[in-house]
Design brief:
The chain is an alpha/beta fold and 278 residues long. It has helices at residues 3-6, 17-38, 81-84, 88-107, 125-137, 151-154, 158-169, 187-193, 212-227, 240-248; strands spanning 42-51, 60-68, 74-76, 113-116, 145-150, 174-180, 197-200, 231-234, 253-254. It has ten helices and nine strands.
Length: 278
């Protein structure tokens, strides 16, 4: 095939077929998410976080955002969040997640719940108005709310995040640093952030009972968290051996499929059939 034929089916402005395919996929994902937002087809799936040494009763739950596509299929965040993270649609998703989570806390006075957020939402009026408005209505609800921020998101505007955290911690809200170890957090900023919880990224946790490398890395991350008086949570715990190892080395809490998959029908909705969502 000649040079002209090689590029014949690629629209102008796209230098390779791969780039065009990626952009087309992202556009399709964005349209799917925006349609779900427009029709309020958004929900939370809840996953338990358990104490490592006494896992029978969850310490708290994490509410993970899900959307419904046009066929009614439940779509987990990993399939769309990177595409929408830096967009207006991403801010709308954060707002809906917050609204759903705060509604759940209102209905369940004994529940403690973690919700994911982007640092970009700190400057988004609807998100901030929702958060402060609900806390004004129910001041004690802040003591049951945990906001999770990923390393990569926190480092976008670290000074803004630290001020936001100080203000909300005064109202009882706790903060968790999600995916700890996955990015390139400056330890100077880690010291200044004063996170209450660090969640050690799952890449260091899966198979840890049989991986000397993961054991060393997790030990180092745990030591850093301990130095700053932060509770440690191990993500992606999938086997009994890994759970036993993590409890033995002093990790505080565990989260993963071994203890429960995210579900849109949590235990406090026991009258509904369970539906686990990846």
């Amino acid at each position: 095939m000649g040079q002209d034929g090689k590029w014949a089916d690629i629209p102008a402005g796209h230098d390779t077929a791969l780039n065009y395919a990626v952009m087309s996929r992202d556009r399709s994902v964005m349209e799917m998410v925006q349609q779900a937002v427009d029709h309020n087809q958004v929900m939370l799936a809840y996953q338990p976080v358990v104490p490592a040494r006494s896992p029978a009763v969850p310490a708290y739950y994490e509410g993970l955002i899900r959307i419904l596509d046009e066929t009614g299929r439940i779509i987990p965040a990993r399939e769309f969040i990177e595409v929408v993270e830096a967009t207006e649609t991403g801010r709308q998703i954060d707002c809906l997640a917050l609204e759903n989570g705060l509604d759940t806390l209102m209905r369940q006075p004994d529940l403690r719940l973690a919700l994911n957020m982007s640092a970009r939402s700190i400057g988004y009026p609807r998100w901030m108005e929702t958060l402060h408005g609900r806390l004004d209505e129910q001041p004690t609800m802040g003591e049951r709310l945990i906001l999770e921020i990923t390393e990569s998101s926190a480092m976008i505007v670290p000074e803004l995040v630290t001020g936001f955290m100080r203000d909300l911690q005064c109202r009882g809200v706790s903060f968790a640093l999600d995916d700890f170890g996955a990015g390139f957090t400056s330890f100077r900023y880690l010291r200044d952030f004063y996170f209450d919880i660090v969640k050690i990224d799952g890449q260091f946790i899966r198979g840890i009972a049989d991986s000397a490398d993961n054991q060393v890395l997790t030990s180092a991350l745990s030591a850093i968290a301990t130095q700053f008086d932060m509770l440690t949570v191990a993500e992606s715990v999938e086997t009994a051996r890994d759970a036993e190892y993590l409890a033995a080395v002093g990790i505080n809490c565990l989260q993963g499929y071994f203890f429960g998959a995210p579900t849109v029908n949590p235990p406090w909705q026991s009258d509904a059939p369970d539906q686990a969502i990846g």
